[in-house]
Amino acid sequence: MSSLPLSIAIKYLKGKRSGFLSFVSSAGFVGVALGVAVLILVSSVMNGFEKELRERVLQSIPHASIIGSIGIDQVPQVRNILLENKEIVASSPYIESQGLIGSSESLKGIYIFGVNPDLENEVSIVGKRIIEGSWNSIEEEKYGIVIGDILAYQLGIGIGDMVNVLFPDTTLSLAGILPRTKRFKVTGIFSIGAPEMDQSFAYINITNAQKLLRLDDTVHGVRIRYKDLFQAPQMVHLDTIRVNQALSSYYSSGNWTNNYGTLFKAINMEKFLVFLLLSLVIVIAVFNIVSLSVMTINEKRSQIAILMTIGATPSFVQKIFMYFGSLIGITGTLLGLLIGLVLTYFLGPIIAFIENLLGMRFLEVYFINYFPVDLRVNWILAICLISILLTILASLYPSRLASKINPAEVLRYE
Predict the structure, then answer these.
(1) Are 247 and 293 contained in the same domain?
(2) For residue 169, what are the contacts with CB-CB under 8 A and spacing of at least 6?
(3) What is the DSSP letter of 22?
(4) Per-residue model confidence as pLDDT tens digits over 160-195
(5) Averaged pLDDT score across all residues of the chain
(6) CA 347 to CA 42: how far, in whole Å?
(7) Which of 19-23, 165-169, 320-324, 387-391 has the lowest mean pLDDT?
(8) Eight-state DSSP code of residue 224
(9) How many domains does the chain have?
(10) pLDDT of 360 higher than 70
(11) pTM value?
(12) pLDDT of residue 369
């Protein structure tokens, strides 16, 4: 007897003339499937952007920095004070400047970082993303430089080639303010996968940077890497205070949110808003299920009345239409899950086909040049469970409406 309401619900879902779903029931079925598929696809892409920003871009730069004209002899003291904080993984002195790099083919503006390769390797992943040459070559080669793969391509150069690097110089001469030029040998090429960095970052030895920028025995600051990236903005402020108190100095601080915090917040906000807006697709499908169930009840009123006259209880009738709405939601959710997973898995080739068809690229100016995907099981389960739960809740009103049918009134004129 318990399977009879389910059998009747399945019969109501089928068309009168064929074994296919009727147009009315398929409309609700497709609505749920479409909503679930789109939510899985879009949420996976948005999670992918967040993951790429966190693991590719934010791990390529220091989490925070203590900024100031720090004497090279004071750097060990600053590092020792910082390492008293157990949340700090590593620290490294640095010099940062803007400049121009030129070859026989092109001239590009870049950010130049003077670093100690061994110490820098502990606060950034750039040294682990070398695809040609060696990261430590900037220590071994007197004037070696490590650049990104996109920058190397734009300049038309490779390992062993010479480039001219123009540094800003504030020294005033009879001819005015002139930049300083130095020839460097390309000893390493890295590829982070973030165009913004691969085409504009260059690394040289910190001693060479001191000489060329005339900093004597000082550096611009100390980079810091924390265990938790998101604690860096709060912790670096406290760590800077400790350093200033210990050394009677007036250093300031900076962290990754100064350059990338807005972008990270924007991605999280977009992810929430897109998820919220696309959830309306499922909500609309749920309301569609309510209307479909009510239409089915009106169509089957006489059959329901006959069932009740031969002994079907109100709860029995209620179960029929609970199953009716739930079946649409469950099957629609499963189909949407399948479609969403397939589309997400093949998103790369699909986007590439569309880009080739339109002759354009969608992410030319973004921090990555492709659509990343991060399928998270908890997100997918949440989407599917919420979809099924909403369709079950949407079936309550029609099922109660069906259980209140008065057989005498319905069959009076039959």
Answers:
(1) no
(2) 177, 178, 179, 180, 214
(3) P
(4) 889 998 887 655 555 555 667 888 999 999 988 777
(5) 81
(6) 11
(7) 19-23
(8) E
(9) 2
(10) no
(11) 0.66
(12) 61
Q: Are residues 318 and 291 both part of a single domain?
A: yes
Containing domain of residue 74, as a range? 64-254
Closest C-alpha among 232, 290, 228 to residue 257:
232
Which among 254, 288, 309 is the end of a domain?
A: 254
Beta bridge partners of 184: 163
Contact status, residue 85 vs residue 239, Cβ threshold 8 Å: yes
Strand partners, 181: 166
- What is the rounded distance in angstroms from the CA atom of residue 389 to the CA atom of residue 391? 6
| pLDDT-based confidence at residue 1 (cuts at 50, 70, 90) | very low
Instruction: Find the helix or strand (DSSP H, E) in which 176 lies.
Output: strand 176-177
In terms of domains, do 32 and 99 share one? no
Structure tokens at 387: 């979809």
Q: Are residues 80 and 205 in the same domain?
A: yes
Q: What single letter denotes the amino acid at residue 24? A: V
Question: What residue has token string 């950034």?
Answer: 124
Same domain, 51 and 68: no
Instruction: Let me know whether 113 and 216 are in one domain.
Output: yes
